[in-house]
Design a protein that fits this description.
This protein is α+β, with helices and mostly antiparallel strands and 685 residues long. The protein contains 17 helices and 40 strands. The protein has an eight-stranded antiparallel β-sheet, with helices on both faces. It holds the Pfam family PCC_BT.
Length: 685
């Protein structure tokens, strides 16, 4: 079940001050669980709201009461203000914590709560409106003497006006939703054609995600860092900045790995950014926790991007280095208490790193959504200084309706090196089965030399992986380690299968063999191995090199802790079949191997091979989602790269294009259809 271990004093005793008796959390998943945990520590009763498909979700089980607010689609449940207002009246909740996303930055919701005398645990409607509108927020920021990005201070009417404005500002430009956030409704354009296309997709995504299709255009700062300042302000005019978070590792403008503090900022730049963030908060009479996001160029010039008037997804890393519970602070502020701290009280203690663990396939555009049921799930909470914020458990479903986040994995250390090492260990010990996940990508990021040295920007992923993410590239030594582990695991399984309740299955058998000759297949390469055993220790000879592998060999465990040539490694055996197929998760990446006896290997060449499908003539859905538009019909001629259809998944629209110039043979989908990963969409001749 969702849980987290304290880091850097996070578990400090919460002061027994009178706040609310009952709080409704207008959200789901990990953030709902996160808010409930602090409420429990403060002695506050909680109410969960849920859609019908979330009726057995973890946040529902954790809360004292739960109310169903509608069917699965978000606009009928978690965005259904009428149903949530009814839930508040039904349960007598005195306050609402909105979490992030959904209604967290919706001024109408905050107004309705105020009209009913219910406290909104967040800023007042004026601040939400001022900062929620990117056009207005930029004007306010300018007036507050906050550095801003050059751009057009108004709403863009149509695609042609967008092209005209982009030409005046100068390419590249960023087209983004005025009411947006979270990377949705956002496109970068480098020419007129991309501006027209970006305007179309951004306005559709903005309307779908926020119910507001207004767009703005500004200069795109090429190769920047994304660094944000956490602010905390009360209703008495006091405001603090709680240091920065580095959020530059992104895909599709959505954060993947964050850390606090940043390797890039010096004390003077940090202070200047913090003071500007507080200046902006005071300009809109902000009260609650909020985040001011900046783009920072290579010369440490920083520009205001936007202010998020809510608790940020990545808030745990700030909690780790400051020791403050931000949810507790938000509740106190909503009750009218003054801030307990002065700016000089805010420390930077150690280093914290957060990896966003998603149910996504990292081999497809750095992460296209995956759905399924978690058949096995084990968080690495037995490790010291590891925190996992999650809202799922073994048996939970990752559905098409909501964000595919599994958890936020946070590690803490006295130094960055210590925190990174702990993250490596935590990712290796994180067991997730039943859905495709992005742990292979996360682990590669945190050990990459550029990331380790702090040489990062928002372009890190496309620059490091220009041809897309391919998983861990094995060195010669790592290849030998992997082959040796597979061979030793195969032998251990063979020996176990000969025994029942610790005794041999057959009373009369030949003396147990202590040496084996095996053939291991990896990446279509065959390797002859010699294996010898002494107790739990295996010596494997590969191409004249010896590899020593030892461990407990508990084949029923999800984790396989081993010592390989004196180095401790934690692997996971994802698959093992009677035909010798073994899939191992090694250094974060899954590798498929086949282990055969010498005789079986000599006969395997007679087995026919399956002919791979010609993917140039068919278009399959790369992810589960719904069809928004189909642009072709049978008999149409399409050019290579031409849009064929648009699939929406998790509120993001993805254009599917033709792999070659051809005639459309048949169309197997229509607008409004729900499709699964691998479903046939269009056939070409």
């Amino acid at each position: 079940m969702a849980a987290y271990r304290s880091a850097a004093g996070f578990q400090r005793v919460l002061h027994a001050v009178k706040t609310f008796d009952k709080i409704l959390i207008a959200n789901r998943g990990e953030i709902a669980c996160r808010v409930i945990k602090t409420c429990k520590k403060m002695g506050i009763k909680t109410v969960a709201v849920h859609s019908d498909v979330d009726s057995s979700a973890v946040h529902v089980k954790m809360a004292d009461e739960a109310v169903c607010v509608g069917p699965a689609p978000t606009n009928k449940s978690y965005l259904n203000m009428d149903a949530i207002m009814n839930a508040i009246k039904q349960t007598g909740a005195q306050a609402v914590h909105p979490g992030y996303g959904f209604l967290s930055e919706n001024k109408e919701f905050a107004k309705r709560l105020a009209a009913e005398g219910v406290s909104f645990i967040g800023p007042d409607t004026h601040a939400i409106q001022a900062m929620g509108d990117k056009i207005e927020s930029k004007l306010i920021a300018k007036a507050a003497k906050v550095n801003t990005i050059p751009g057009y201070d108004g709403v863009v009417k149509d695609a042609e006006e967008a092209v005209k404005i982009a030409g005046e500002i100068g390419y590249p430009v960023m087209i983004k939703a005025s009411a947006g956030g979270g990377g949705k409704g956002m496109r970068i354009a480098w020419n007129d054609e991309e501006t027209r296309e970006g305007f179309r997709f951004s306005s559709q995504e903005a309307a779908s995600s926020f119910g507001d299709d207004r767009l703005l255009i500004e200069k795109f700062i090429d190769n920047p860092r994304h660094i944000e300042i956490q602010v905390l302000a009360d209703k008495h005019g006091n405001a603090l900045w709680l240091n920065e978070r580095e959020c530059s590792i992104q895909r599709r403008n959505q954060k993947v790995v964050e850390e606090a503090p940043s390797t890039f900022l010096d004390p003077d730049t940090r202070r200047a950014m913090g003071e500007q963030a507080v200046s902006l908060a005071k300009a809109v009479k902000y009260s609650s926790a909020g985040t001011v996001e900046f783009l920072v160029d290579s010369k440490k010039n920083f520009y205001f991007l936007e202010m998020n008037t809510r608790l940020q997804v990545e808030h745990p890393i700030t909690e780790c280095i400051t020791g403050l519970d931000l949810v507790q602070q938000m509740i106190r502020i909503a009750m009218g208490y003054k801030l307990q701290h002065k700016q000089s009280d805010i420390p930077i203690n150690g280093w914290a790193i957060e990896s966003r663990v998603y149910a996504e396939d990292p081999y497809k555009s750095f992460g296209l959504p995956s759905i399924g049921r978690l058949s096995q799930y084990q968080e690495p909470l037995d490790l010291h200084n590891v925190r996992v914020d999650s809202g799922i458990e073994e048996g939970s479903d990752i559905s098409i309706y909501y964000d595919p986040m599994i958890s936020k994995l946070v590690t803490y250390g006295k130094t960055r090196e210590e925190a990174l090492k702990k993250m490596e260990e935590a990712l290796d010990n994180y067991v997730i089965r039943g859905v495709t996940h992005n742990i292979p990508l996360l682990r590669e990021i945190i050990v990459h030399p550029r990331f380790v040295s702090g040489d990062i920007s928002t372009k890190f992923l496309p620059e490091v992986y220009p041809d897309g993410f391919k998983g861990h590239m094995l060195t010669a030594g790592e290849r030998r380690e992997l082959l040796a582990t597979a061979a030793a695991l195969y032998v251990a399984a063979q020996l176990r299968s000969q025994k029942f309740l610790g005794d041999l299955r057959v009373s009369v058998v030949p003396a147990e063999s202590r040496q084996w000759e095996l053939c291991v297949e990896l990446d279509k390469g065959l390797h002859m191995l010699g294996v010898s055993r002494s107790g739990n220790n295996y010596t494997v000879e590969i191409d004249g090199e010896k590899v020593e592998v030892s461990g407990e060999w508990n084949l029923a465990s999800a984790l396989l802790p081993l010592t390989i040539n004196g180095k401790h490694r934690t692997l996971q055996c994802l698959l093992r079949t009677a035909a010798g197929e073994i899939t191992l998760q090694y250094l974060g990446t899954s590798f498929k191997l086949r282990v055969l006896s010498k005789l079986a290997a000599s006969l395997s060449k007679h087995m026919p091979e399956k002919v791979p499908e010609d993917t140039s003539s068919i278009l399959r859905s790369p992810m589960p989602g719904s069809v928004v538009a189909v642009s072709v019909k049978p008999g149409d001629n399409v050019a290579e790269g031409q849009e064929i259809c648009v699939i929406e998944a998790m509120k993001m629209q993805n254009s599917m294009t033709a792999a070659k110039a051809a005639k459309v043979k048949s169309v197997h989908c229509k607008a409004g259809d729900t499709v699964g990963e691998g479903d046939l969409l269009v056939e070409l001749e």
